[in-house]
Protein backbone atom coordinates (compact mmCIF):
# COMPACT_ATOMS: atom_id res chain seq x y z
CA UNK A 1 0.00 0.00 0.00
CA UNK A 2 1.28 3.46 -0.92
CA UNK A 3 0.08 6.28 1.33
CA UNK A 4 0.50 9.83 -0.01
CA UNK A 5 0.36 12.63 2.55
CA UNK A 6 0.43 16.17 1.17
CA UNK A 7 -0.16 19.57 2.68
CA UNK A 8 1.31 22.98 3.50
CA UNK A 9 4.09 23.79 5.99
CA UNK A 10 3.35 22.94 9.66
CA UNK A 11 -0.01 21.33 8.83
CA UNK A 12 0.95 18.24 10.81
CA UNK A 13 1.58 16.11 7.71
CA UNK A 14 5.03 14.98 8.90
CA UNK A 15 3.74 13.83 12.28
CA UNK A 16 0.82 12.07 10.61
CA UNK A 17 3.00 10.41 7.96
CA UNK A 18 5.42 9.09 10.60
CA UNK A 19 2.54 7.77 12.72
CA UNK A 20 0.94 6.05 9.69
CA UNK A 21 4.28 4.47 8.79
CA UNK A 22 4.63 3.09 12.33
CA UNK A 23 1.01 1.92 12.42
CA UNK A 24 1.18 0.08 9.07
CA UNK A 25 4.89 -0.87 9.44
CA UNK A 26 5.80 0.87 6.21
CA UNK A 27 8.99 2.79 5.36
CA UNK A 28 8.56 6.57 5.38
CA UNK A 29 10.11 9.33 3.28
CA UNK A 30 9.89 13.02 4.19
CA UNK A 31 10.33 14.38 0.65
CA UNK A 32 10.76 17.96 1.92
CA UNK A 33 14.18 16.84 3.16
CA UNK A 34 15.32 16.30 -0.44
CA UNK A 35 14.47 19.91 -1.34
CA UNK A 36 16.04 21.07 1.91
CA UNK A 37 19.21 19.10 1.09
CA UNK A 38 19.50 20.90 -2.26
CA UNK A 39 19.03 24.20 -0.40
CA UNK A 40 21.73 23.29 2.14
CA UNK A 41 24.17 22.34 -0.62
CA UNK A 42 23.58 25.71 -2.27
CA UNK A 43 24.11 27.52 1.02
CA UNK A 44 27.35 25.65 1.67
CA UNK A 45 28.66 26.15 -1.85
CA UNK A 46 27.65 29.82 -1.89
CA UNK A 47 25.38 29.08 -4.86
CA UNK A 48 22.58 31.37 -6.02
CA UNK A 49 19.00 30.14 -5.43
CA UNK A 50 17.90 32.42 -8.28
CA UNK A 51 19.82 30.24 -10.73
CA UNK A 52 18.03 27.10 -11.90
CA UNK A 53 21.32 25.80 -13.29
CA UNK A 54 23.13 26.15 -9.95
CA UNK A 55 20.18 24.63 -8.10
CA UNK A 56 20.27 21.65 -10.45
CA UNK A 57 23.98 21.18 -9.77
CA UNK A 58 23.15 21.14 -6.05
CA UNK A 59 20.93 18.03 -6.51
CA UNK A 60 23.70 15.84 -5.18
CA UNK A 61 23.23 13.98 -1.93
CA UNK A 62 26.72 12.50 -1.63
CA UNK A 63 27.74 14.95 1.10
CA UNK A 64 24.36 15.16 2.85
CA UNK A 65 23.63 13.61 6.22
CA UNK A 66 19.83 13.41 6.35
CA UNK A 67 19.98 13.59 10.16
CA UNK A 68 21.72 17.01 10.02
CA UNK A 69 19.60 19.44 12.12
CA UNK A 70 20.53 22.26 9.71
CA UNK A 71 18.15 20.68 7.19
CA UNK A 72 15.33 21.65 9.53
CA UNK A 73 16.36 25.31 9.78
CA UNK A 74 14.11 28.12 8.58
CA UNK A 75 16.87 29.24 6.21
CA UNK A 76 17.02 25.83 4.52
CA UNK A 77 13.20 25.70 4.39
CA UNK A 78 12.97 29.14 2.79
CA UNK A 79 15.56 28.35 0.12
CA UNK A 80 13.97 24.91 -0.43
CA UNK A 81 10.71 26.61 -1.25
CA UNK A 82 12.49 28.88 -3.76
CA UNK A 83 14.43 26.15 -5.60
CA UNK A 84 11.45 23.78 -5.64
CA UNK A 85 9.80 25.95 -8.34
CA UNK A 86 12.39 24.77 -10.92
CA UNK A 87 11.12 21.93 -13.14
CA UNK A 88 14.70 20.65 -13.61
CA UNK A 89 15.16 20.33 -9.83
CA UNK A 90 11.79 18.59 -9.42
CA UNK A 91 12.65 16.17 -12.22
CA UNK A 92 16.04 15.41 -10.67
CA UNK A 93 14.41 14.50 -7.34
CA UNK A 94 11.39 12.66 -8.75
CA UNK A 95 13.01 9.31 -9.54
CA UNK A 96 14.35 8.90 -6.02
CA UNK A 97 10.83 9.44 -4.66
CA UNK A 98 9.21 7.11 -7.22
CA UNK A 99 11.73 4.37 -6.44
CA UNK A 100 10.95 4.74 -2.76
CA UNK A 101 7.19 4.63 -3.41
CA UNK A 102 7.59 1.59 -5.64
CA UNK A 103 9.34 -0.67 -3.16
CA UNK A 104 7.69 -4.01 -2.45
CA UNK A 105 5.21 -3.77 0.40
CA UNK A 106 4.56 -0.08 -0.11
CA UNK A 107 5.59 3.14 1.61
CA UNK A 108 4.40 6.38 3.13
CA UNK A 109 5.63 9.60 1.51
CA UNK A 110 4.84 13.12 2.63
CA UNK A 111 5.30 16.32 0.65
CA UNK A 112 3.43 18.67 -1.67
CA UNK A 113 2.87 16.67 -4.87
CA UNK A 114 2.91 13.01 -3.82
CA UNK A 115 -0.76 12.36 -4.56
CA UNK A 116 -0.75 14.47 -7.73
CA UNK A 117 2.61 13.82 -9.42
CA UNK A 118 4.90 11.33 -7.66
CA UNK A 119 2.40 8.57 -6.82
CA UNK A 120 -0.94 9.43 -8.46
CA UNK A 121 -1.94 5.75 -8.11
CA UNK A 122 -1.43 5.69 -4.34
CA UNK A 123 -4.12 3.63 -2.60
CA UNK A 124 -4.60 6.20 0.14
CA UNK A 125 -4.18 9.95 -0.22
CA UNK A 126 -4.50 12.51 2.53
CA UNK A 127 -4.41 16.26 2.14
CA UNK A 128 -3.56 17.60 5.57
CA UNK A 129 -4.17 21.25 6.28
CA UNK A 130 -4.81 23.76 9.07
CA UNK A 131 -5.52 27.47 9.29
CA UNK A 132 -2.39 29.58 8.66
CA UNK A 133 -2.62 31.16 12.16
CA UNK A 134 -2.64 27.70 13.75
CA UNK A 135 0.27 26.51 11.64
CA UNK A 136 2.25 29.66 12.44
CA UNK A 137 1.59 29.12 16.18
CA UNK A 138 2.84 25.52 15.95
CA UNK A 139 5.96 26.53 14.03
CA UNK A 140 6.57 29.42 16.47
CA UNK A 141 6.29 27.09 19.50
CA UNK A 142 8.58 24.55 17.84
CA UNK A 143 11.19 27.22 17.08
CA UNK A 144 11.02 28.57 20.62
CA UNK A 145 11.52 25.08 22.01
CA UNK A 146 14.63 24.78 19.87
CA UNK A 147 15.87 28.04 21.39
CA UNK A 148 15.35 30.16 18.26
CA UNK A 149 14.17 33.68 19.10
CA UNK A 150 11.55 34.93 16.69
CA UNK A 151 8.21 36.76 16.54
CA UNK A 152 4.88 35.09 15.89
CA UNK A 153 3.98 37.69 13.23
CA UNK A 154 7.21 36.99 11.31
CA UNK A 155 6.51 33.26 11.37
CA UNK A 156 2.98 33.89 10.08
CA UNK A 157 4.28 36.09 7.25
CA UNK A 158 6.79 33.38 6.33
CA UNK A 159 4.12 30.64 6.37
CA UNK A 160 1.86 32.72 4.11
CA UNK A 161 4.73 33.45 1.71
CA UNK A 162 5.62 29.75 1.58
CA UNK A 163 1.96 28.79 0.96
CA UNK A 164 1.74 31.33 -1.80
CA UNK A 165 4.92 30.13 -3.56
CA UNK A 166 4.06 26.44 -3.16
CA UNK A 167 0.48 26.88 -4.43
CA UNK A 168 1.12 29.24 -7.32
CA UNK A 169 4.21 27.77 -8.95
CA UNK A 170 3.73 26.32 -12.44
CA UNK A 171 5.55 23.02 -11.76
CA UNK A 172 3.65 20.61 -9.48
CA UNK A 173 1.91 23.23 -7.32
CA UNK A 174 0.59 22.31 -3.90
CA UNK A 175 -2.99 21.22 -4.44
CA UNK A 176 -5.30 18.55 -3.20
CA UNK A 177 -5.63 15.55 -5.56
CA UNK A 178 -9.27 14.99 -6.51
CA UNK A 179 -9.26 11.63 -4.74
CA UNK A 180 -7.41 12.84 -1.62
CA UNK A 181 -9.19 12.92 1.74
CA UNK A 182 -9.07 16.33 3.37
CA UNK A 183 -7.93 16.36 6.99
CA UNK A 184 -8.05 19.74 8.75
CA UNK A 185 -5.99 19.51 11.94
CA UNK A 186 -6.70 23.09 13.14
CA UNK A 187 -8.80 21.96 16.09
CA UNK A 188 -7.24 18.53 16.66
CA UNK A 189 -4.44 17.60 19.02
CA UNK A 190 -1.72 15.20 17.93
CA UNK A 191 -3.50 12.02 19.03
CA UNK A 192 -6.83 13.03 17.50
CA UNK A 193 -5.16 13.97 14.20
CA UNK A 194 -3.39 10.59 14.02
CA UNK A 195 -6.61 8.70 14.85
CA UNK A 196 -8.48 10.64 12.14
CA UNK A 197 -5.72 9.87 9.61
CA UNK A 198 -5.80 6.14 10.37
CA UNK A 199 -9.61 6.13 10.03
CA UNK A 200 -9.32 7.80 6.58
CA UNK A 201 -6.68 5.33 5.40
CA UNK A 202 -8.82 2.42 6.60
CA UNK A 203 -11.70 3.78 4.54
CA UNK A 204 -9.51 4.15 1.47
CA UNK A 205 -7.98 0.67 1.36
O1 LIG B 1 7.88 20.07 3.89
P1 LIG B 1 9.04 21.00 4.03
O2 LIG B 1 8.71 22.29 4.72
O3 LIG B 1 10.23 20.32 4.63
O4 LIG B 1 9.46 21.36 2.53
C1 LIG B 1 10.33 22.43 2.24
C2 LIG B 1 9.96 23.02 0.87
O5 LIG B 1 10.23 22.04 -0.14
C3 LIG B 1 8.48 23.35 0.72
O6 LIG B 1 8.18 24.68 1.07
C4 LIG B 1 8.22 23.12 -0.76
O7 LIG B 1 8.45 24.28 -1.49
C5 LIG B 1 9.25 22.10 -1.16
N1 LIG B 1 8.69 20.77 -1.39
C6 LIG B 1 8.11 20.50 -2.62
N2 LIG B 1 7.62 19.27 -2.90
C7 LIG B 1 7.67 18.29 -1.98
C8 LIG B 1 8.21 18.54 -0.69
C9 LIG B 1 8.70 19.81 -0.43
O8 LIG B 1 8.05 21.39 -3.46
N3 LIG B 1 7.20 17.07 -2.30
TrEMBL record:
GO cellular component terms, semicolon-separated: cytoplasm
Matches recorded under InterPro entries: Cytidylate_kin, Cytidylate_kinase_dom, P-loop_NTPase
Cytidylate kinase domain mapped to chain residues: 3-202
Location of this chain's protein in the cell: Cytoplasm
UniProt-listed GO biological process terms: pyrimidine nucleotide metabolic process
Keyword line: ATP-binding, Cytoplasm, Kinase, Nucleotide-binding, Transferase
A GO term for molecular function: dCMP kinase activity
EC annotation from Swiss-Prot or TrEMBL: 2.7.4.25
One Pfam family recorded for the sequence: Cytidylate_kin
Catalytic function, reaction form: CMP + ATP = CDP + ADP; dCMP + ATP = dCDP + ADP
EC top class, as a word: transferase
Residue positions binding ATP: 7-15
Family: Belongs to the cytidylate kinase family. Type 1 subfamily.
Protein name: Cytidylate kinase
Gene from which this protein is expressed: cmk
Amino acid sequence: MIIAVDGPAASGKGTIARALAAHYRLPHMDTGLLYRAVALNLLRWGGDPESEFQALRACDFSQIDFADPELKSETAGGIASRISVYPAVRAALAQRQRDFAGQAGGAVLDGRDIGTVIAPHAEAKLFVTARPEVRARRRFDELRQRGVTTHYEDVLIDIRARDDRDSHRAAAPLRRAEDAHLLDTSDLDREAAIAAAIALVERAR
